[in-house]
């Protein structure tokens, strides 16, 4: 806001132009303007991106104009997070990709642990453990969004990405082939319990797990499914890896919902969500490794 400080009416004016200068209080910018014998126009040139004032100075009532303003140019630029310009889901994707190995994704930074998927030797028993524990996790996720302890969860009902029903059909098929369906094991039980507890107190962290579980399955999960099918199922494609409708559009719809929910979050809440990514990878990795058990 500009402020104007008048000189005393009896104060003489110099014949030669002089500079009237005030000390700079903290947090303000000041401009000192020359006062001449004849009325003049004091013109401030317009720096790029700023407004300017043109103020007359009369001979009888000489005034010194003090202009204070916030200088955007002087402010430090706000930190930009990778992917932020495209929406929060892109930030989540960026963080998730860095937790992959180089052979899994070009953005990957993690060192490989164990054999790559191409060299896996899966077993029916191990694969059934994986499917059973996966179903427990998806059952839990779908129940959480259905009950919606936080209103935002309701946005993710009936997205078309749900996997619980499909997994139920696959397990029934295995049963019909004469295989014994195991009970859920520790990795699945631990993750389901963690998700339930997290969803009741920490929506940002919970939605990190929601995103990574569903989106990872549509990418790396399908690749693993094809590999297992070739090795032990004579190429049969399970319902777990099928979706009704255009998968790309289903994913886009959920991206938009996640971006919309995240718009109301503070930067700290967004960072908290991103920090949960590594824990999501650990839980899902423990379940994935059941395939080799």
From TrEMBL:
It holds the Pfam family Heme_oxygenase. InterPro entries: Haem_Oase (IPR002051), Haem_Oase-like (IPR016053), Haem_Oase-like_multi-hlx (IPR016084), Haem_Oase_decyc_pln (IPR016951). GO terms for cellular component: chloroplast. It comes from the Eukaryota. GO terms for molecular function: heme oxygenase (decyclizing) activity; metal ion binding. Keywords: Chloroplast, Heme, Iron, Metal-binding, Oxidoreductase, Photosynthesis, Plastid, Transit peptide. Its EC number is 1.14.14.18. GO terms for biological process: heme oxidation; photosynthesis; phytochromobilin biosynthetic process. Belongs to the heme oxygenase family. This is heme oxygenase (biliverdin-producing).
